[in-house]
Amino acid sequence: xxxxxxxxxxxxxxxxxxxxxxxxxxxxxxxxxxxxxxxxxxxxxxxxxxxxxxxxxxxxxxxxxxxxxxxxxxxxxxxxxxxxxxxxxxxxxxxxxxxxxxxxxxxxxxxxxxxxxxxxxxxxxxxxxxxxxxxxxxxxxxxxxxxxxxxxxxxxxxxxxxxxxxxxxxxxxxxxxxxxxxxxxxxxxxxxxxxxxxxxxxxxxxxxxxxxxxxxxxxxxxxxxxxxxxxxxxxxxxxxxxxxxxxxxxxxxxxxxxxxxxxxxxxxxxxxxxxxxxxxxxxxxxxxxxxxxxxxxxxxxxxxxxxxxxxxxxxxxxxxxxxxxxxxxxxxxxxxxxxxxxxxxxxxxxxxxxxxxxxxxxxxxxxxxxxxxxxxxxx
Length: 379
Description:
Blueprint (H helix, E strand, L loop, with lengths): L4 H13 L2 E5 L6 H11 L3 E5 L3 H6 L3 H6 L3 E6 L7 H9 L6 E7 L3 H10 L4 E5 L5 H4 L4 H7 L3 H4 L4 H22 L6 H13 L3 E2 L2 H8 L3 H13 L3 E4 L15 E4 L2 H7 L5 H5 L4 H17 L5 E4 L5 E8 L2 E7 L9 H9 L4 E6 L4 E5 L2 E5 L8
């Protein structure tokens, strides 16, 4: 088992500030395990698994059942009971609210929409993903990159076991989770769409191309993309617009957020197959980008590109500072003309090139090479 103290601290802070904390993230990312740890440490409270028939019976009269509780009350898989949101609003508004509610669920449109509407001003959200570098140890980055951060995939006894778990997850996600999120599409067709996204990983979104391939409309494939984004499977990295006198790219870039799932959809089984695959550079870019965004805190980032070819993989706005990041699968990356243009046009305070290994080298002119193992040191 791998400890996750930072995530636990974020939940504790959220429960201190608000009567309700909603932990959102994909299935099997560790939400329930973390919630059980918080519950075990609480002096009093109750735990409800809303996929359990027994716990559903306990909540036949939810206001009566929950209203009598004190301490930490955990409601797991709350998207199964959307009728609980109005009840939680009433209970959270009680004077001196004797309970704190920790609600968990997949980030379905049903969950995020109803919780935002019913619990506005009463809930704080905490996003939880799979393991990151700080949790597993920076030296284990090759394994984390290859297998992804889902706990059962990363901790599997062998590469074959990890691959088998990911294949089972994909099947369950397509056949069960997406229909629950309101996406009515046959699983084989959805897998085809998801695989197309895997082959487009790290590229700009082209709805027309994918729509033609699937004989669907641009609007339909856009809705599929948004659903995968809302369920934390896909990241849409938005472009940064700035009046720099150049025509700029306006379509988002698409990344599968977990590289283990990316490799499963691409049919890559081990490190040898990954290193020889044409998408190895794009896979590295997505992996390193997710690790940077996980360390950088809330606010997200952007990419920047012009029609003339200048491009920056990631732009972070950290207070008054502007930091650029390039992700290169090379042991000795060097600055390029495109990077120099980005430094000048975007007025970057620092540009870091993230690569494999342990390097931390100042190249001068605000440019730095940083190995992935040193990433946690710079945030």
